[in-house]
Amino acid sequence: MDKHLIDTCGDELYEAMVQRQALRPLTERFSDITIEDAYHISLRMLERRLAAGERVIGKKIGVTSKAVQNMLNVHQPDFGYLTDRMAFSQGEEMPISERLMQPRAEGEIAFILKKDLLGPGITHADVLAATECVMPCFEVVDSRIENWQIKIQDTIADNASCGLFVLGDRAVDPRKVDLATCGMVVEKNGSVISTGAGAAALGSPVNCVTWLANTLGHFGIPLKAGEVILSGSLVPLEPVQAGDFMSVSIGGIGQASVRFV
Question: The Fumarylacetoacetase-like C-terminal domain covers which part of the protein (predicted)?
Answer without folding.
Answer: 74-259
